[in-house]
Amino acid sequence: MSGSFLLLSLVLLPGVKSADPDNWVKKLPGRARVLPDLSGLAWIAGDRFLAVHDAKFPEEKNLPRVSVLQLPSGLDGVRFKALHPSFKGPESDDLESIAKIPGTWKYLLVESTGDLDTKPFSNRIFLAEWMNERLTIIDRIEWPIGTENIEGTAVARIGDDFLFIFAERAHGEGHTEIQFARLSLDPLGLESFGSAGIFTSPWPTGPDARPVSAIDVDSDGMIYAASAGDTGDDNGPFRSAIYKIGAVESRNGQPEIVLDAEPETIALLDGVKVESIAVCEQDPGNMEIFFGTDDENYGGFIRPVPLGD
After folding, report:
1. Are strands 254-270 and 238-251 parallel, antiparallel or unpaired?
2. pLDDT higher than threshold 80 for residue 29
3. Residue-wise pLDDT tens digits, 208-241
């Protein structure tokens, strides 16, 4: 309303001085239990997910690397429990993604990779199996090619073959290469690497943007990716987007990734840093996409993305 304003008055509670903000903290009935960062997310079944956290080794060796999440059914919110699988060696360093292997209870837990002189335990891919409420590491390999800051991975199934899809986050570059390899499980291995081409993120853009911070794929082969903006300040602000970027197709019996000429916008999310997405398909034709955030000092959260009109 023109010419008017709203006057807000502060009513001090008895015994609380406005000049002493610590009094507010002391009167809180307890400390909030913050959900750790969700640097990777994969659907299990029903309302449950596996998440990985990008804790560093050795300075954060006591922090969880993997958790199981359960979506809320009431005011209790998201429930989560830290898991403690044996990595059969040093604790994982900088797990940035987890990829569900379609048609199985197996998952790939993927470290970000990078400079092994400064991050000696960040170049591994673990094969894990979810069984009897436990996650067990059953195999592992080193990254067989040189990569840097892989934040998005997914696995697609074409017939009896598995295709591992991945991309570097390419901080500040505006675009990144969508790559793939044939995946074998027994033993775990990657071979026949290839490139599907360059993905350019429409938004966020600029020197703080990461074109790919997460990837997942649905049962029809549609590929989804998240992009994120991170200024480097652990208090934010952040910004993110989720796109459909292409599809996995079968041509002459061979899997092939075809990127869309123009990404389809699924969601624009200002104020959060999306580092994980997970496709959930309870029944044929009933698909949901959930995203998880790594909001640094604010922790993380998980939410569904509205689909359709």
Report:
1. antiparallel
2. no
3. 999 999 999 999 999 999 999 999 999 999 999 9
Per-domain residue ranges of the chain = 35-298
> Is 93 a residue whose pLDDT tops 90?
no
Q: What is the mean pLDDT of the chain?
A: 87
d(CA 297, CA 37): 9
Q: What average pLDDT does the segment 58-83 reach?
A: 89
CATH classification of 35-298 is 1.10.1040, yes or no?
A: no
Is 71 in contact with 280 (CB distance < 8 Å)?
no
Tokens of 240: 């993110």
Residue 63 burial by Cβ neighbours in a 10 Å radius (0-12, 13-18, 19+): middle
- Give the pLDDT confidence of 254-280 residue by residue, as tens digits: 889 999 999 999 999 999 999 999 999
Q: Which two tokens stand for residue 54?
A: 């990008």
CA distance 85 to 106: 14
Q: Which of 101, 33, 97, 107 is nearest to 65 (CA)?
A: 97
Q: Is 70 exceeded by the pLDDT of residue 8? A: no
CB-based contact 53:66 (threshold 8 Å)? yes
Q: Kindly state the tokens that stand for 218.
A: 């649905």
Structure tokens at 257: 């990734």
Gyration radius (Cα) of the chain, Å: 21
The vertex-64 CA angle with 35 and 234, nearest 5°, equals: 55
User: Is the pLDDT at 244 greater than 90, yes or no?
Assistant: yes
CB 101 within 8 A of CB 123: no
Tell me the average pLDDT across 23-29. 42
Phi, psi for residue 214 in degrees, rounded to 5: -170, 155
